[in-house]
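Morning!

This is the sequence you dropped in the shared folder:
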Amino acid sequence: MNSDFKRRLLLLFLFLLGLIVPFFSELVLFEIFFLIPLLLLLVASIIISVVSFFSKKMKEEKVFIVLPVCVFIGAQIFSVTVASNYFRAKSNLEIIKIENHFNRFGNYPAAISEPLGIHYFSDGKSEFEIEYSRGFLVREIYTSSEKKWESFGWND
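The structure's back. Tokens below.
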């Protein structure tokens, strides 16, 4: 295998890893433990990329030092943003269906066919909750009694 293929394979692996890390609490805790070195690496990577961009002797090796950290962190930001928007939209659709069921039958369903990543809890009579993970140990919870979304972090 040539080195270009290995580099692309490494970047793909880091991108895929970055997509899933925010949603596994053990991986998030591991990342938090290494947060300061990771942030320092990111800042150093950005400085190296800016300097090498304006340098006339921009070498591929310098760029590849920058790319892995940026790809990993960028994938996490992308993943959390997309997942949060997706889960909120799907949850809002489920809330409409649940409220329609309540208006039709006078009670909330005991269970629903939950889309992947969304959790539904109900006593069947007076109220329900819908919950999903926004990533990085943050949960979004909608309660029918308050009719609003609330965020709960790792220490709540």
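Headline: Residues 86-152 form one domain.

More detail when I'm at my desk.
O.
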